[in-house]
Amino acid sequence: MRLLSGASDECEPEWCDSEDPLFILYTSGSTGKPKGVLHTVSGYMLYVATTFKLVFDYQPDDVYWCTADIGWITGHSYITYGPLANGATSVLFEGLPTYPDVSRMWEIVDKYQVTKFYTAPTAIRLLMKYGSEPVQKYNRESLKVLGTVGEPINPEAWQWYYSVVGEKRCPVVDTFWQTETGGHVVTLILSIVPAILNESGEELEGPCEGYLVFKQPWPGVMRTVYGNHQRFETTYFKKFPGYYVSGDGCRRDKDGYYWITGRMDDMLNVSGHLLSTAEVESALGEHAAVAEAAVVSRLHPVKGESLYCFVTLTDGVGFNRTLEAELKKQVREKIGAIATPDFIQNAPSLPKTRSGKIMRRVLRKIARNEQDLGDLSTLADSSVIEQLFLNRCCGAV
Ligand code: PRX
């Protein structure tokens, strides 16, 4: 109170140039070193404000709730800037969807009469495991639109979200976008002129599968990789000149719908968070016991994908539970809790090509226990494979 009485009611805004930097958010890069994605004042804010309004059909009497972490791009664009620029009434939530119990989300929806709800497939899959009873305990009649973001939503999760949460009344709006795009770029309502290209950069027509690119610029696209403009140009504009390259694969069906199939590079998506295998490998490699590490993804029923790490230990070091726990901790501390590996496998040798490149494709199959390894003619030493299958980490997570 004492402080308030002396404070002015007015706060002069800080005038900025439209192209002044607004914020830098770091995101994983396929080479391992995170990229500082730089967004600017006007284009970004205009874009998130508009997409928020149109994609969620925001109306002044809405109560909007996005469950994302505010430090992540979804929290920046669709908790902070987009809703605030529209003067929207929002629920801000810091906590877990399962604490104190698995009805938490629906209790909040009921309590605040939430109309527009935005979450990630990983949260839906997590809650789905507990069935419909915890959802049905609360009234969800206020809900009008259900949004999803961060990773491909599998049909079971979509059905559950649509039927159980939304009682088949609410449209499910899947929103595809990236830290780099600032806001939504493919949704059912609006899209930034997408195209699908083949490996030679030719645009494909009709039903097809290939690289997802965008043909036109939009106000919210990142302006540079902080401190490395060259990397910005190389990563997004070099492979297919004239297009923005998303790095994701995509299928178009006969009805013209786009289905995102996932990353085309060495990236993986754990609970809607993008991680690069290289980043995790280098965190493991910093441990004195590790000579070499190779990381691949393994499908996970809740997280979408999880980390499966193969480690070759330095001579004389034995593999045991203590080391395994230490390595997990190492990755967790270097990158974050989301990157904690689910599996660490001792790999006395890794499958490599004659030129010494690790064959991740083969490792991915071993992690998933798929015996059909495809063409192994470039493999330098095939005895490695049998050993790796024998040492596989089993067990469900
Ligand atoms: O692979 C795509 C996936 O998440 C990546 C972007 O991750 P990030 O920059 O962390 O931003 C996440 C929040 C926007 C994309 O390259 N992705 C994001 N949304 C979807 C998706 N994959 C499928 N469907 C989505 N709706």
UniProtKB/TrEMBL annotation:
Its taxonomic placement starts with: Eukaryota, Metazoa, Chordata, Craniata, Vertebrata
- Keyword Ligase on entry: yes
Start and end residues of each AMP-binding enzyme C-terminal domain: 279-357
Protein name (database record): acetate--CoA ligase
Q: Which SUPFAM superfamilies match?
A: Acetyl-CoA synthetase-like
Q: Cite the AMP-dependent synthetase/ligase domain residue spans from the record.
A: 10-192
- Specify the species: Salmo trutta
What sections of the protein cross the membrane?
none
Q: Name one GO cellular component term.
A: cytoplasm
